[in-house]
Amino acid sequence: MKELYDLMITHMPDAGGHFGRFGGKFAAETLMQPLQSLQDAFFTAWQDPAFHAERFDLLEHYVGRATPLYHAKRLSEENHGAQIWLKREDLTHTGAHKINNTIGQGLLAKRMGKKRVIAETGAGQHGVATATVAAMFGMDCDVYMGREDMARQAPNVFRMQLLGANVIPVDGGTATLKDALNEALRDWVASCENTFYIIGTVAGPHPYPLMVRQFHAVIGQEAKAQSLMQAGRLPDIAVACVGGGSNAMGLFHAFRDTSVRLVAVEAAGHGLETGQHAASLAKGRAGILHGNLTYLLENDEGQIKATHSISAGLDYPGVGPELASMHEAGDIELTSASDDQAIAAFQTLTRCEGIIPALESSHALAAGMRLAATMKPEEIVMINLSGRGDKDINTVMNILEKED
Ligand SMILES: *Cc1c(COP(=O)(O)O)cnc(C)c1O
Q: Which of 138, 204, 304, 402 has its CA 20 to 30 A from that of 117?
């Protein structure tokens, strides 16, 4: 399976970790040395065949890669227009793409001799993916989570605890993800000697956005080879939803410098004009969040705004700096899907194909189906099905019951 993957790192940020004008390292002075050590460890590991041998062994036998590329024939027919192909990240262990990254960072933590990992989590999904690999590697694991989020995502809190992680409630601010981010960074300042901070998306200070992209690049590399093998050509369009941007960068990276159009789908929540959404690229402006310069949603006083999306995983007030740069350079096309459109796509895929998608992925589906309907039957739209929807059935049930 290793033959599928390309270990050359292309599209490097500059020495300061900038992608265009975005990215960089905005962190406490005390973190500059730990970030440099992390960067050195990452590049050393990336040059070491033993690191990749262990990584690919786990990706194959623990995560379940390569994930299939599936031609959704009935969905394509019902939708009229282009053929829809799904990259099945929902079939990975723990049910979403996030584990590609936590395996990579967990291995790096092990190489660096760290006995403890920390993470922050909003919906709990990155916390669960981190607690999973901490259990597998036998490491201590502390996860920071806003107290408000803990109440909303109680099953994921219990999952993390079952996996042996300690979930630390954060009370400051609005007691949500942005407050948990600050607490995790504060912990790392004091503990970096023995602790590895596992960041869950293509954000954070350099080298995190680059590292996380490289760990997820397997998605697009597989999908590219599979498309050539199964469809005989590359797709016309590749579509992914964007929270922080990790599943999108994972899919897109292999298709850069090809003719494939890259479409990023943000969460429009109740509508882009209502202010209740999570569309950082469409509606945000440049500012500093989570240690990097990027697009974010803030009010006139520079306070991070409360975001809204039906899908907890897209409910992030920023976006990875590389996607911000690709957006400004015109390398991606930007669109969005609302809560209602995502729910409709969720139901359509479930009924047509017997696949229950995550609500995050349902945003990519909604936009992908919309595009496919304007295209010819011989054209191909590839959609990243970033996760499975079992975690979302109560949310969907409550909404459908209200409609009745
Ligand atoms: C977390 C999550 C996302 C959003 O995160 P990205 O970093 O934007 O990929 C999307 N889909 C699923 C299933 C998730 O769990």
A: 304
